[in-house]
Amino acid sequence: MLQRLGPDPLRSHLPAIFTVDPRSGVPIYLQLIDQVKRGVALGTLAPGEQLPTVKSLALELTVNPNTVARAYRDLERDGVIETSPGRGSFVRPNGVAPSELRTDVAGPAFDDAVRAAKGVGLGRDEVRQIFERTLQRWYPGEEER
Amino acid sequence: MNESQPVIAFDHLTKRFGSFEAVSDLTFGVAAGSICGLLGPNGAGKTTAMKCLLGFLHPSSGSALVDGAAVGPKTFEYLSYVPETPALFGDLTVRQHVELDRRSQPRHDPARAAELLRTFDLDLRKRVKALSKGQKTALALVLALASRPRVLVLDEPSSGLDPIFQRVVLDLLIEVATEGGTVLFSSHQIGQVERAADHVAILRAGKLMLHSDVETLKGSEKVVEATFEGSVPELDGRLDGGAVRRIERAGNMVRVSVKHDEEEIARRIQALGPTSLRVVDRNLEDIFLDVVAEKG
C-alpha cells in the first residue's frame, strides 16, 4: 500500500473541486482560479473558509508550487480570496459577490452553446426559440416580467 | 524568486571529448524555489551538463556553478544527486546502504530516511542485487532525500518506476521546492515536466534550444481547434497573414497553430461554420517535438 509523503496534517481532506489537467490546453493556474471561483459561486467554499496551503495543494495535485502561488495571487488581486502572512489564504468574507462569480462561471457555457448553434447554421431567431424552450424547462412557471 | 542570482548556474559551459562537443556554450540558471525540467533526445548532453555541474567532469570552457561557486565536498552536505544508474553495492542490503549514508552524510535524518523507505515500500533486508530496477531507483532517491537537501539534481529520476511511484517522485521534488529548495531534473517524460516544473530547458546536440517559464511557453503559441460537420472546408487562402505556423487535419477536425492574432484566426474559422471551436494553449510535447525537429 502506498503511503503519501509528509506529515498527515498537511494533507487536509480537500474538496474534490480541485482537479487539474495539465494537457487540457488551459493553463493550470487558470484552471485553479476557475475552480476556486466556481466553489465560491456554488457555496462549496464559504466566505471566510480557509483554502489549502500552496504546499498542500501543490502536493495534492502534483503541480508546481509556483503555479499554485500564481493562482492564489491572481485570486487575491481579483478580490476573491485574502492571504494573511503566517495564517494562510481564506475566501474573502466581503469579497466578490457569489452572484457576480456565478455570472463569470456560467457565461462561457452560453458562449459555447450559441457558437455550436451558429456552427450548425441556426439563425438568431431559431437560437432565441431554443433558448426560450430551455428556459421554460429549467424555470417552469416563471414568466418574464 | 531571485532570478538574478540563480542557485544553479551554467555559464557558457562547453565540454568536449576529443573532437566531439557534447555540450556547447550552455547558459541558463535555476532559481531558489524553482523546479527546472531538462529535456532533450538521447545524446543531447543532459547528463554531461549535470556531471560538469557536480564536478565529475571538468568543463572545456565556461562554468557550471552552485551558489556562485564550483562544487566542493562541502556542497554535497546540502546537494544531492541521483544519477541515471545509481551507484549502489549489489551485495549490501538496503539497511546497510542507509547505514552507510548515515555515517557519511552529516545531515542524514534517520526519521526522514525511515519515512521515505516506507513511502517506497522498500524491504530493509533485501540485497541490492535482488532489487528491481525501479526499487534501485527508489533506494537512490531515499538516500538522496534523507539529508533534506536544498539543491537536488536528478538524471531521469523515475526510470523503472511505475506510474504511482513516478507521481510520488514528482511530489518529492515539489516538496523540496515548496521549502525553498532548487531542483534540476532530466526526463524523457514530458508530462512530468509539464506538471512539476516551472521552467524547462531543451537541449539538442549539446546546444540549448530553449529555456523558458513553462506556462509562458505553452501560452506563447495558441492552437485554434475546430470541428466541422462532415469534412473540414478548404482553408487555403482564408488564413493568410503570417501568423499561422501549421495546419493539421484529422477527420472532421482541424488544429491551426498560430503565433499571434489567434482571435482573428478563430473569427475567420468561425465564419466557415464549425460545430465547435476553441482556442487552447499548445502542449509541451508539441513544443518539444517542434524544437527538436527544427533544422539546426
Written overview of the protein:
The complex is a heterodimer of chains A (about 140) and B (about 300). Chain A has 5 helices and 2 strands; from the N terminus they run H-H-H-E-E-H-H. In chain A, a hairpin with a 3-residue loop joins strand 1 (about 80-85) and strand 2 (about 90). Chain A has helices at about 30-40, 55-60, 65-75, 100-120, 125-140, and strands at about 80-85, 90. With about 140 residues, chain A is mainly alpha-helical. Chain A has a two-stranded antiparallel sheet with strand order 1-2. The longest helix of chain A is centred in the last third of the chain and has 22 residues, at about 100-120. Chain A is elongated and about 55 Å long. Chain B has helices at about 45-55, 95-105, 110-120, 135-145, 165-180, 190-195, 215-220, 260-270, 285-295; strands spanning about 10-15, 20-30, 35-40, 60-65, 80, 150-155, 180-185, 200-205, 205-215, 220-225, 245-250, 255-260, 275-280. The two termini of chain B are about 35 Å apart. The chains are: A mainly alpha (about 140), B alpha/beta (about 300). At the A-B interface, helix 2, helix 3 and helix 4 of A face helix 3, helix 5, helix 6, helix 7 and strand 13 of B.
Question: What is this structure's SSE topology?
Answer:
The complex is a heterodimer of chains A (145) and B (296).
Chain A lengths: L27 H15 L11 H8 L3 H13 L3 E4 L3 E4 L6 H22 L4 H15 L7
Antiparallel strand pairs in A: 1-2
Helix pairs in contact in A: 1-3, 1-4, 2-3
Chain B lengths: L7 E10 L2 E11 L4 E5 L6 H8 L7 E6 L12 E4 L11 H11 L5 H10 L13 H13 L5 E5 L7 H16 L3 E5 L3 H7 L2 E6 L2 E7 H6 L2 E6 L16 E7 L2 E6 L3 H9 L5 E6 L2 H10 L3
Parallel strand pairs in B: 3-7, 3-8, 5-6, 6-7
Antiparallel strand pairs in B: 1-2, 1-4, 8-9, 10-12, 10-13, 11-12
Q: Quote the CATH topology of the largest domain in chain B.
A: Rossmann fold
Instruction: Supply the CATH architecture of the largest domain in chain B.
Output: 3-Layer(aba) Sandwich
Q: Please state the average pLDDT score of chain B.
A: 91
Number of helices of chain A: 5
Structural class of chain A: mainly alpha
Q: Identify the CATH class of the largest domain in chain B.
A: Alpha Beta
Largest sheet of chain A: 2 strands, antiparallel
Helix coverage percent of residues of chain B?
25-40%
| CATH topology call of the largest domain in chain A | Arc Repressor Mutant, subunit A
Query: Order of strands across the widest beta sheet of chain B?
Result: 5-6-7-3-8-9
Our measurement of the CA-to-CA distance between the termini of chain B, rounded to an integer number of angstroms, reads: 33 Å
The CATH superfamily title of the largest domain in chain A: Winged helix-like DNA-binding domain superfamily/Winged helix DNA-binding domain
Say which CATH homologous superfamily of the largest domain in chain B is assigned.
P-loop containing nucleotide triphosphate hydrolases
Structural class of chain B: alpha/beta
**Computed CA radius of gyration of chain B, to the nearest angstrom:** 23 Å
Fraction in beta strands of chain A: 5-15%
Number of separate domains of chain A: 2
CATH class of the largest domain in chain A: Mainly Alpha
Average of the residue pLDDT scores of chain A:
82
Indicate the overall shape of chain A: elongated
